[in-house]
Design goal:
The protein is built from eight helices and seven strands, in the order ααααβαββαββααββ. With 371 residues, the chain is an alpha+beta fold. The strands form two sheets. It has a five-stranded mixed β-sheet, covered by helices on one side. It has a two-stranded antiparallel sheet with strand order 1-3. Strand 4 and strand 5 form a beta hairpin. The chain starts with 8 loop residues before the first helix and ends in a 10-residue tail after the last strand.
């Protein structure tokens, strides 16, 4: 934004200090006039009877002739003192602001690793500096995450495109190849690329918070997700068990349905073969509604579990089986939870598998007795 040049804050503060000092001096002189000089007679000539004081008692005009030049000199001194002292004091007071401005300029040039770290006791400038440091830390982490995501997304999208190109080259250069098999493989690769693109769009939509909020019952979304994924569970021999009560939340029904579907899909796919089990439970409390999803599976370390919400991370090997997912399921779950002001907790089960808990705030319009 282009602005016309103006006076600096330091100069304005200097003028304020000097002006306040001059105003205080004028008030003092006015007090001297009101409470002292106005009571001195202007014409009467009084002989002082005290022998130690020779001459006449000074009248008002004489006092004014003596007092005014000296008062003017004092005011001039106060003006100079106020300007110099105000300039120094304003510089000391605004020095933290200079550091904040320098840090802002560095951040604007792309250096997000710089921190102000303003020393001293807590005051308004230090609160501003600490808030700015916190903002820079979050922004740096977000930019780093976006860069990792962009790199991973480019890699994931490049893979199906490269496979498609290779299959097309084979079909063109080797007429003896079975075209039906090549078409089936192209269909599989293309389906995966479409799924990945849709997942990326869903993640982008959640990041932008471009959705309307409405009352949503998580228990009904769980039933809908189970109905959609039941054929997959039956194919893999996974049993789904549900329990809990009504769980009223407030948010986007489409995004929360995507969250629930991703959790159920993840629990089915990453489960034991032929004897897996998925447990789903919904509940509501005074401050939050809870959706819990547990499954059997391989034993996972806490360190590995902590990375599962990163884009394109999986708990097991990156296999390309049917319905293996695109590595964005839990990343989307985390973002949808965050944009709904909720919390996501993922912990490994001692017997193997995961326990995932999503907590969302209770709708403001609902009191605990209404739940």
């Amino acid at each position: 934004m282009n602005r016309q040049p103006g006076l600096s804050v330091r100069f304005k503060l200097t003028l304020s200090y000097a002006g306040f000092l001059m105003f205080a001096g004028l008030l003092l002189l006015a007090a001297v006039w009101v409470f002292l000089l106005r009571y001195v007679p202007d014409r009467a000539m009084l002989i002082n009877p005290d022998d130690r004081l020779k001459g006449v008692f000074p009248v008002r005009s004489v006092l004014l002739n003596v007092f005014v030049p000296r008062a003017a000199a004092v005011l001039a001194f106060l003006l100079a003192f106020g300007l110099v002292g105000g300039w120094v004091l304003a510089g000391r007071m605004l020095s933290p602001l200079t550091r904040i401005t320098d840090a802002t300029s560095m951040a604007g040039k792309g250096s997000l690793s710089h921190r102000i770290r303003l020393p001293g006791r807590k005051d308004e400038f230090r609160e501003l500096a600490d808030a700015f440091d916190t903002m820079l830390a979050r922004l740096e982490a977000h930019v780093a995450e976006q860069r990792r995501f962009a790199a991973n997304a480019s890699h994931e999208l490049r893979t199906p495109l490269a496979i498609s190109q290779a299959l097309l080259d084979v079909a063109r250069n080797d007429p003896t190849q079975d075209l039906g098999e090549i078409i089936d493989r192209l269909h599989t690769v293309n389906t995966r690329a479409i799924d990945l693109t849709e997942a990326l769009l869903m993640l982008s939509r959640a990041d932008q918070r471009s959705f309307s909020r409405e009352p949503v019952d998580l228990s009904l979304l769980v039933e809908e997700a189970i109905e959609t994924l039941l054929p997959l569970a039956e194919k893999r021999g996974v049993t789904i068990e549900t329990s809990g009560d009504v769980a009223p939340a407030f948010g986007s029904q489409a995004l929360l349905l995507q969250l629930t579907t991703n959790l159920v899909h993840n629990a089915i796919v990453h489960n034991l073969a032929d004897r897996g089990t998925v447990w789903l439970e919904t509940g509501a409390g005074p401050e939050a509604v809870v959706l819990t999803v547990e499954n059997r599976g391989e034993k996972l370390s806490p360190r590995l579990v902590s990375t599962l919400t990163e884009p394109f991370q999986r708990g097991t090997d990156r296999v390309r089986t049917d319905h293996a997912g695109v590595g964005l399921g839990l990343a989307i779950v985390r973002r949808i939870t965050e944009v709904h002001d909720g919390s996501l907790t993922i912990t490994p089960r001692p017997q193997g598998g995961l326990r995932i808990e999503v907590q969302l705030p209770v709708p403001p319009a609902l009191s605990p007795k209404d739940i």
